[in-house]
Amino acid sequence: MLIDSHAHVDGPEFDADRDEVLARARAAGVQRMIVIGAVDEPASAERAVALAERDPNIWATVATHPHDAAKMTPDWWAVHERLAPHPRVVAIGETGLDYYYDHSPRAEQQAVFARFIALARTVGKPVVCHIRDAHDDARAILREHRAAELGIIIHCFTGTPEDAAAYAAMGAYISFSGIVTYKTAQPLRDAVRQVPRDRLLVETDCPYLAPVPKRGKRNEPAFITYTAEAVAREVGISYEDLAALTTENATRIYRLPPANPSTY
Q1: DSSP assignment, residue 101?
Q2: Phi first, then psi: what are they for 219, rounded to 5°?
Q3: Which of 9, 105, 181, 206 is the most exposed place for a label (fewest CB within 10 A)?
Q4: Which CATH architecture best describes the domain 2-263?
Q5: Mapping DSSP to helix (H, G, I), strand (E, B) and coil, where does residue 64 land?
């Protein structure tokens, strides 16, 4: 069994065939997944929670992506604050810093990131972080707000091996996406070995970042098997052991209940 620790299957990209996508995931051994309600408007958070309410093997997160930090309004915050305590919401995220695109001013990204960490503390849930080209500032904010006490997930890690080691030293969980399968991603594969085994995660970030050999297609949870195979090779363990390991890790950090095969 695998857990897709970061998926956007609530989005419009899956409206035409969502049930088939979920069926393919389960056929591939992806029995559970975390759906991230953080794309653009808070409607994404509402959709993610609604999907988690309907499916016992799906859980949700809520936040606003750093790309959209400048759009935050009191109404947006109200939605997240209402949904954050929901029993099907297992984390606050994805939130963080993206200095690659800079779609929102950096100061606003930092302020929103800090406020979402505060919201996570209010509800006692971990923080899912999107960090791109901003690792020093991100670690400073995470340290200042003692996010490690809540649990930190660095999703779709794209930093250096040194960044991975620094996050690991903070106690963070680090998740690898399909990027780890790309020919040019050797530094990322090197980073896998910097992460303690008990804090490794795998994800699709679907519909984005499909792994080789599906690169260029719409990504979906069933494709996580290719990412898991690549990570297993770097760790030096079997695919089956990697699947069991990352499932145990995701279950721990997201505080999921024990798996119930009768619901698959």
Answers
A1: T
A2: -75, 155
A3: 105
A4: Alpha-Beta Barrel (3.20)
A5: coil
